[in-house]
Amino acid sequence: MAHDDHSAHHVNYLAVFAALCIFTGLSVLFDVLSFENRMITIVLVLAIAVAKAMSVMMFFMHLKFEGNWKFVLLAPTTILAIGLPIALLPDIGVKYYTTLAPQDGVWGAEMEELDAAHHGGGEHSKSEDAHAAPADDHKAPEADAHKA
Amino acid sequence: MGIPIPNSKLGLWLFLGTEIMFFTAFIGSYIVLRIGSRGWPTDPHDTHINVFLGGLNTFVLIVSSYFVVVAHEAMAQKQFDKARKYLIYTLGLACLFLCIKGAEYNGKFANDILPGRIPETPGQAISKVDRQLEEVVRERFAVYTDAKLVEVPEANDLSTVNAQLDIFSKSDKGEPAQRENAAADVVLFGKWQNLHQHIVANVSLVEVPEATGPQYLAARAALAEGDSLPPLAYSEVETFLAGLKADKTYAASVSGIFDMHPVLYGNLFASIYFLMTGFHAIHVLVGMGLFIWALMQGSKMDDRWTNWVENSGLYWHFVDLVWIFLFPLLYII
Amino acid sequence: MIASSNGWWFPGDAMSPLGKRIDELFYLILGIVTVVFVGTQFALGYVIWKGATKKDGESAEFSHGSHSLELIWTIVPAFVLVFIALYQMDVWAEFRVQSYYPEQTQEDGPKFEVTARQFEWRIRYPEAGQPLKNQPEPQDLYAVNEIHVPTGRPVKFNLRTDDVQHAFFAPELRVKQDAVAGLIIPVWFEIPVAGEYQLLCAELCGWGHYKMRAIIVAEPQDKVNEYLARLKEDQDFDGVVKDAEEE
Amino acid sequence: MATVTPAIESHSDGHAHGHEHHHEIGFIKKYVFSTDHKVIGIQFLVTTMLMLMVGGALALAVRWQLAFPWENMPILGKIFTGEGGQISPEFYTMLFTMHASVMIFLVIIPVLAGAFGNFLIPLQIGADDMAFPIWNMLSYWCMWPAMACFAISFVAGGATAGPAAGWTSYPLLSALVNAAPGSGAAQTWWLFGLTLVGFSSMMGSVNYMTTIINMRAPGMTMFRMPLTIWSMFITAILQAFALPVLTAAGFMLVADRMMGTCFFIPAGIIVNNAEPTVGGGQPLLWQHLFWFYSHPAVYIMLLPAMGMVSDILSCMCRKPIFGYKPMVYSMSAIAGLGFIVWGHHMFTSGMNPALGMTFMTSTMMIALPSAIKTFNWIGTIWGGRVRFNAIFLNCAGFVSMFIVGGLSGIFMAAVPVDIYFHDTYFIVAHFHYVLFGSTLFGVFAAIQFWFPKMFGRLMNDTVAKWHFALTFIGFNGTFFPMHLLGIAGMPRRYADPYLHPYLEHLLPMNQFMTISAVLMGVAQFLLLGNFAYSVFMGKKTGRNPWDANGLEWSAPSPPGHGNFDVPPVCYRGPYEYSSPEAKAIGQDFILQTEPPVDASKIAASDTKNVH
Ligand code: HEA
Ligand code: HEA
Ligand code: CUA
Ligand SMILES: [Cu+2]
């Protein structure tokens, strides 16, 4: 019977569990540390998420001990799951045409003033956030980010 | 012929495949929409997102995932009581997760971080304050009308409210406390009308201070043709609101008015946040249902339920997996 | 043939150079497809006829297929399709990729802005000599359901919508482009011959979708200028004179 | 056969009672809330045939308006509008929206996957039922609330304003409640209906995949499965992986409409003098997500028909299918490529032009596997011994019409040409050729082919031939001229194209098409009549009226509960018609369950048959 097979593999679930907890702690830590470059945080945090996901799937979901069907099943979904956002990126993410969203256009100047006024200027880098090229979007509002 | 796993498990895995695509659509849309938006609210002041609560919830789900595995292990070893115990733990943690989630949602509701309700520009912020203040005014006024202390103005026209209340506060109707309140409310109503008129006419609060009704119109008419007053500035309204909240005579009435700081792309953020966490929460509920069903069997939960526990466990791990991705995507990045 | 003689064919020859190339592509594909169509239908008819007229006692051939045939009918269509795919790339690029637009449109910039709304086309021209801004300027000129463009030169304009999605469809020019909420999409065409051309809406936009009709008037540049001057006059006319006379 | 019978599966009771206990199952359990895949399949079949009538009636109303604009429509008009029968523009919008929704979501998808998938999968792979009979039953009963939602959406918006955004329901028309009469409650109900159909398909597809993977009879290896099963399998995969995306997008759209979210709504849009929208979303996102499902969906609407036609052609030509493996591979290729071509519906939508080129290339490539299949069908008939009955005719019609529809797809796949053709009647011609011309002809063939297995009786061939002939003529008369309309530049979804001077002269042609459509509609009554008559009074037949090979033909007609009286074992591929083995036992077919024939016997018969 199928599941009798797994029981033969003794996984130290506690160890997996501990690893997951440590990973979670790490991601919170990275957030609190808030690196100079926001990209680093993003990459690190997502890498941790992938690592966590892998350990859950491998051990908790027993995929490590399953037959080759797991590849047949998961490969297409993985490809599609990664492919869909990539395919949408050139259109929805990177805008080829000018957009006239009031947030970006008309209201832009207004917002800039506002942010300067509201936050006593400079304290936040948010006003730049709003108008800089998309690549700079993720600059951290360092000073008091996520104080909760 | 087939592969050496039970139909139910195969079916469940295939179902998980569809679930992956379901969340892919959400997460993928989130990613591209976010990259496509110039700016995103990341400041916890704006978003009312709490990394620690999120982290805690991640932890809670991981613990529950662990218990599910052990429960299945126990089932396989035919220790059904042990399995039941672990399932109850899991269920408890699921409840805890939902409670924390609820607390978070509550924080957002309390600050009106709701899709479609977040001002994204100073102009929207200003009119939002106006609208909220109007609501307060109507509510306050209803107190008097309900008690039949003043007459209801025609077609709910609020312009005569002041006069009515003023008369009431100086009359001898009602209780003394009510009359006192009425006096405070007269001031409050005046302030709202003042703001409202400035918004409608788009002129500065500073230049024509405290001018309501006829006085205001007179002030405006006095301007030479071609002259215009400086438009209403966001900071003026901000000070105005702060002033209202500071004044103890009616602070209690207006304390519910939300901080109106405009949040760029706040609505899209809120849409995505609620959609993704909401659908995740629905999945949590379904998972809980699966466990409850098994637990309801009581001592009848024996060998035949091993598959059930395994499959609902797999489902539960998937719910955990989704959260593992939602946590960094929504809370950290 | 019957079709074209009854007018059941294109609405006139393509009037823009790009449209001509689209038509050429159409005829090329039509040629290829006709060959394939006739070939396959005849083959189908033939095998059915042979199969249905087998004599009693004659049995079907026993064959599981043929590797080489399989290869042939994969590779030959593959070549044809790749050819079609590559051959048309530059027409597409010229129509939609902004850096491939005719040089003149790059220099001139957009000439006017067309805004679709339920259920009409609104046109906004900049003041003479001024470039078109994305936001309305006080001196802009407005018109409804009538576009005047100069002949003989590529004209670029911005396409927008005020509400739901619409599509700018000029059948004689073979131009079609959706107007998407939130986007400003530059489109260009060129009309060599003066005349009036149809403009329709080709994306479902509500109950009045079918009646979003407008005309594009192509005329020499000086006529266009005249038209704009007239527009300006109309627009600057504030009614005061008339009122004064009446009183 | 599955080696394990997991505890939570519920069909254990099926075996406990033997055949003799059948009468104990009450009528309701046996015919209404049945978990038997055959009953569910037939339920699906009958439901979809009725829905075909509804969808067809809507189509005829559309055609009426196009032939006699603004004139009172007889019969149907009175039923629909309750008044004189004049079609208003918003009513016209609703007509084609509902026509397409009914045809696609309540006819084509359920008839292929629901009816034939259900009926054939367990029978053809030698299983006693589906893997999850209860889910199977639910997947059928999910159709009813879906139909109810669609029906409500007919009336929810007032007398004549149903959902008004087309079956593609592009935002903002579909996202803003005040964008059009009918964009309100009607559109919401429509979306609910769509979601429910989605649930139904999702349950079905997981069930089919599990069944096909895990419950095949001994010896039924993957490459011995009939192409029907392959096509159902691939379709189920497409459903399982593409549909959730549409469901998710549907939820987003519903949220946009009802909960103030703004996934598809940009800021500052003013519709019907309402307040400007607050938002930050993008309408194009819906189009991407929608077509990410709906392009694969067009193959969901075609592949099963392709599979069934392959089976039937092979049987009717008494000849193995030409190139079995290439057929399998090309279906897989269609499915795989089908996931990366969705953008061809968006060439003029204002998407990034670089994507246009990519999607154009992949779209061209998808014609290749279709070409392989087409040539293989012709190859199958070639040298065969054709049984010239209505079933064969429908199959031949399928192949022929598919070529026409596919080839018109090539024009549109060419981006520059599609600039002109997008949203004209050329598109309408294209998809009716592939949807009606191919799929429905395939379905007609399949109904008649498996009818004896369903009811133990034969359908009348002469009537069926008339049905085919009339439908074929009516079909081409209706839809071939649409190509010309498209070339003449007539946009689709126009309530009154003749408002535009350059389209005025197309009126007579439209009238001709409408008459043809009525002819085609009338012809469908022949099918219904034939079906209904034959269920009760058709000629009785035995197990294998067509001398076919598949496992299903070794079961009784109609098969009892549990399907097979002897657990089937499969010894060979499904298409061994006229093989030496078959000839050795004196037939031109050999059932998949027939144990291998002695080599000596084959040799003996071989020398006898030497040409
Ligand atoms: C069953 C359904 C079905 C099928 C199978 C197809 C098959 C194809 N479709 Fe179609 N399509 C639809 C249903 C379908 N379509 C629908 C419903 C719409 C409209 C939706 C809406 O807007 O409402 C649509 C719209 C549509 C468009 C969008 C048009 C527009 O709106 O602007 C395009 C564009 O590329 C397209 C292309 C194709 C192609 C290239 C194929 C190919 O797969 C066809 C391949 C087949 C062949 C080519 C024939 C056989 C091959 C040979 C004989 C070999 C030799 C051939 C050559 C060398 C050329 N289709
Ligand atoms: C499987 C799908 C399918 C099928 C089978 C059909 C079948 C038919 N379709 Fe349709 N059609 C679509 C899918 C389909 N269609 C889609 C997806 C669209 C696009 C919608 C959009 O733009 O959003 C469309 C759009 C569409 C249009 C374009 C509308 C427009 O753009 O303005 C037209 C116009 O002629 C049309 C006509 C027909 C006709 C005449 C039939 C005929 O073949 C129908 C024949 C069948 C019958 C006629 C049934 C017989 C029944 C009776 C006679 C019963 C009478 C009954 C009672 C009175 C109870 N269809
Ligand atoms: Cu505008 Cu259709
Ligand atoms: Cu497509």
For the termini of chain D, the CA-CA separation is: 42 Å
Main-sheet strand order of chain D equals 1-2
Task: Describe the sheet with the most strands of chain D.
Answer: 2 strands, antiparallel
Beta-strand level of the residues of chain A, as a percent range?
under 5%
Helix/strand/pairing category of chain D? mainly alpha
**Largest inter-chain interface?**
C-D, 90 and 106 residues
Mean pLDDT of chain D: 87
Proportion of helical residues of chain D: 55-70%
What does the main sheet of chain A amount to?
A: none
What is the string of helix and strand elements of chain A? Answer: HHHHEHH
Mean pLDDT across the residues of chain A is: 67
Integer count of domains of chain A: 1
State the end-to-end distance of chain A. Answer: 51 Å
Q: What integer value in Å does the Rg of chain A equal?
A: 22 Å
Ligands in the model, by name, code or SMILES, are: heme-A, dinuclear copper ion, copper (II) ion
Descriptive account of the structure:
The complex is a heterotetramer of chains A (148), B (333), C (247) and D (611). Chain A contains 6 helices and 1 strand, in the order ααααβαα. With 148 residues, chain A is mostly helical. Chain A has one domain. Chain A is flat and about 60 Å long. Chain B is an all-alpha fold and 333 residues long. Chain B is built from 12 helices and no strands. The mean pLDDT of chain B is 82. Chain D has helices at residues 12-16, 27-32, 37-67, 76-81, 89-125, 133-141, 143-155, 185-214, 227-258, 283-300, 303-316, 324-338, 353-381, 390-413, 415-421, 425-455, 461-487, 507-537, 580-584, 599-608; strands at 457-458, 539-540. Chain D is globular, with a radius of gyration of 25 Å. At the C-D interface, helix 2, helix 3, helix 4, strand 7 and strand 9 of C face helix 5, helix 13, helix 14, helix 15 and helix 17 of D. Strand 1 (98-99) of chain A pairs antiparallel with strand 8 (183-190) of chain C. Bound molecules: heme-A (HEA) (2 copies), dinuclear copper ion (CUA) and copper (II) ion. One heme-A (HEA) binds at residues 52-53, 56-57, 59-60, 62-63, 66, 76, 96-97, 99-100, 103-104, 107-108, 166-168, 428, 432, 435-436, 440, 478, 492-494, 517, 520-521, 524 of chain D. Dinuclear copper ion (CUA) is lined by residues 116, 119, 166, 201, 203-205, 209, 212 of chain C.
